[in-house]
Design goal:
Elements: H1 3-22, E1 81-85, H2 88-92, E2 99-103, H3 109-122, H4 130-166
Parallel strand pairs: 1-2
């Protein structure tokens, strides 16, 4: 992908964003009427169906006119093409100018850290980098909570034992 194509792709992503704002939410026919019907899209198929016949006042149906620009399809909102990474070998094949990396969910902490260091050296964008920071914060808060809970549990047992001894 040349610089010109990359610029076109980024412009297409902006256009896609604008088009998406004008696109209605496509909902299942009469899902607003019956609780048992979810809002997930289903194509209306009945002979007398108002939605299928596109009668004024009824919700819009899905059609090709709402589709985004061809250049923007498959691109991340940042304008990069997403690549799923499992190891360092896959990271070496990534072109940092046009591709961004998403580290697979089943990669452990040690391997993830190595991938992040290598990506930083090569100037590759990592899309799910924030998850690592959040996980570390969660672990720290869990550890502190566990430490705080342990003395409380012991004190309850002591109170019970003291209560039984008095009786």
């Amino acid at each position: 992908m040349t610089k010109n194509e990359l610029a076109l792709a980024r412009k297409a992503v902006e256009i896609r964003k604008r088009v998406k704002g004008r696109k209605p939410e496509f909902i299942r026919q009469e899902s607003w009427r019956y609780i048992r019907l979810k809002e997930n899209w289903r194509r209306p198929k009945g002979l007398d169906n108002k939605m299928r016949r596109k009668i004024k006042g009824w919700p819009a149906t899905v059609n090709v006119g709402y589709r985004g620009p061809k250049n923007a399809r498959g691109l991340h909102p940042s304008g990069y093409r997403e690549v799923l990474i499992h190891n360092l070998d896959e990271l070496k094949k990534v072109n940092p100018k046009i591709e961004a990396v998403r580290i697979a969910h089943n990669i452990g902490g040690r391997k993830r850290a190595k991938i992040l260091v290598e990506a930083k050296k090569r100037g590759i964008t990592v899309l799910n980098f924030k998850e690592v920071e959040k996980e570390k914060e969660k672990e720290k808060t869990e550890e502190t909570e566990i430490k705080e809970e342990k003395p409380k549990q012991k004190s309850k047992k002591r109170k019970r034992a003291e209560g039984n001894a008095e009786s």
